[in-house]
């Protein structure tokens, strides 16, 4: 009859009898360590047989477990510190990492909207909104910002101390369409303006602004909806051009085209069936409309244009990247203005 003490696990004291077919290891030449499993011996220092006359150095990232033995698992995991955005010991909230175009918390967002700072998008956690949150949403919509409901987990990924709201602020301030016209008049030059319809990729937006600055355009006009804004990605692609090219954001692009036409500016759109851009007349005041790669210019906007142009395609692909096509056409206009 077995007792409680008999059922206890007895410590390993040496070589155990191995059954048939079990591999055995000869005694090591330099000590009592035997086999691949030896008590209280690090794996990196074990010796498998007489032919192994050296032991590699133990890894520095291996930590001894309780009892002095070494084991995998925790030994191979790097120690983890506190979360990156965890509050400091004094309770202060850390600064936003790397991206200064994000506002977190209700009070900073509310004050930015009241001060007229351009807000591209407002992310709001799903759920019932309190009175203060509803006021911020109302101010954001009045300012033309896109208000989007997202899961709270999504906000946690961006910045944990968000208080249910995050706002993306434009890299630079927008101007009015009249400011662009005034800048052209101040230089005593015919207006040269770029209008973008449906450009949703911020990298394309930044590249177009960069080309516009190099080609001598007086400004770029973008709509509030269905368009990329002056996000950090657009600012990076613009490579500093946002500091020199005025950007106007309008509620209605068609209304902006009518305003330009009232100032005797020819509005030229881009379409596959337009006239050859290499032989077209680009002299005088010009506003060039660039559409998205997939859908192009919206039908109503295209009907507002005075005429359309197209780049001849010699290859099998039917279209160019929007920013590449815009750059070619802008320099065609610059060449016509240089004559």
Overview in brief:
With 339 residues, the protein is an alpha/beta fold.
Topology:
Blueprint: E1 102-104, H1 106-114, E2 119-125, H2 131-142, E3 146-150, H3 152-158, E4 165-169, H4 177-186, E5 192-197, H5 202-215, E6 219-223, H6 232-238, E7 247-250, H7 253-262, E8 266-276, E9 286-291, H8 299-304, E10 307-310, H9 322-338
Parallel strand pairs: 2-3, 5-6, 5-9, 6-7, 8-9, 8-10
Antiparallel strand pairs: 1-4, 2-4
Helix pairs in contact: 1-2, 5-6, 5-9
List keywords for this structure.
60s Ribosomal Protein L30, Chain: A, Alpha/beta knot, six-stranded parallel sheet, four-stranded mixed sheet, 27% helix
Return the CATH topology of the domain at 177-312 and 319-338. Alpha/beta knot
Structural class: alpha/beta
CATH class of the domain at 177-312 and 319-338: Alpha Beta
What fraction, in percent, of the residue positions are helical? 25-40%
- Determine the strand fraction and express it as a percent band: 15-25%
The major beta sheet can be summarized as:
6 strands, parallel
Mean pLDDT across all residues, rounded? 77
Which ranges are low-confidence, i.e. pLDDT below 50, for 5 or more consecutive residues?
A: 24-41, 43-98
